[in-house]
Amino acid sequence: MPQLSPVGQAVVNDAVERLGFTPDAVTHVLMALGQGGGTHAQFDLVELGGKGQWSTGGKTMIGDILNTGLHARVAALCADLSSAMAHAQVFLPPESQQDLPEPETPRMDQFQPQPPTSSIDRDAIFDSLEKLGVLRDRGVLTDAEFDQKRADLLARL
Question: Which region ranges are annotated with the description Disordered (predicted)?
Answer without folding.
Answer: 93-120
